[in-house]
Amino acid sequence: MSNINLIDSFQEFKQFKNIDRPTMMSVLEDVFRSMLRRKYGTDENCDVIVNTENGDLEIWRTRKVMEDGFSEDDALEVEISEAKIIDPELEVGDDAIELVTLESFGRRAILAARQTLVSKVLELEKDEIFKKYKDRVGEIIVGEVYQVWKKELMVIDDEGNELILPKTEQIPADFYKKGDSIRAVVLKVEMLNSNPRIIISRIAPSFLQRLFELEVPEIFDGLIVIKKIVREPGERAKVAVESFDDRIDPVGACVGMKGSRIHGIVRELRNENIDVINYTNNSSLYIQRALSPAKITTIKLDEVRKHASVFLNPDQVSLAIGKGGHNIKLAGKLTGYEIDVYRDTKDEDDEDVDLEEFSDEIESWIIDELKSIGCDTAKSVLELTVDELVKRTDLEEETVKDVLSILRAEFE
Transmembrane segments in this chain: where (predicted)? Predict the structure, then answer.
């Protein structure tokens, strides 16, 4: 067959990265059969042979040889006088097999075929990318930052596929420029205007889980199971783990010798603090572990309301709440309990006064705000500086100073 432009273009298409060779050959055959039907009205008596090695193809057309004047269907039959031109040795009743050249279709038909082929190949490739990444949701991918925009990054994987990392799925401390290598987890795959849109994430709990699987062989092998992960991306994470082998300490295995295993994860997450906790069905013990590093004095549980009242020594309250309230918030998410912390005042000076006693002078919402950071007595508030109180609450500096003035007056 004459090797004109259309055939040359097939050499490009057969190399498409996401389409296997049999599928590509099938597409080529469909395109040519469509051309045959438009030209002859049928393709039943035509054979399209695609060479899978070099991309060349041949089209052979078979017609029954008839006596002159007795041919009723030119698409399936040929008169003897015309058949002799194809092959002088043909007789009536024989099959006339001829090679159909591309030139016989005409330039316009060839250009239309090329356009159809391009369209089908692109459609196939989009479908293949969608299917491939749909099956990879939850997996870690490594890519290269290709484009940086205000609200998202475009990342290219090792096959040149485009992935999107929205700003909302980045750790607050993340900063990338073009050419940087990046690790993230495939969050979801969606079709937008017939184009696959692959969203990746660095803040999803599944990203932290996959990092643990990479660093801790016991998790990858199933000897240790991650029961639950909660995160405040870039700040703190809590991971509850359980071992199916009594000989394995799940927390020790995850942390590694001198923190060797967890340090790599912490660096990847921009120094996010990670608390690894031994899972238990004992709710009281689970809450106690979840509030680590604070040491709890007593716990009162309301199983119906899923509420826990936790009492701690005064010096442990700020540890339980954590910077920005992250520790207590994550502990609540991990255990499923609403947790309130209180100062254990049994051993404190009897002169200390509960904040509720000041309700005539201090508005109730201000008292609630102070209680939310573990300050439920006058002295517990006075132990903190103005800056600390402003930083840890939503109170204005002037309001804090007024409150401190009222509380100090009580003890003067």
Answer: none
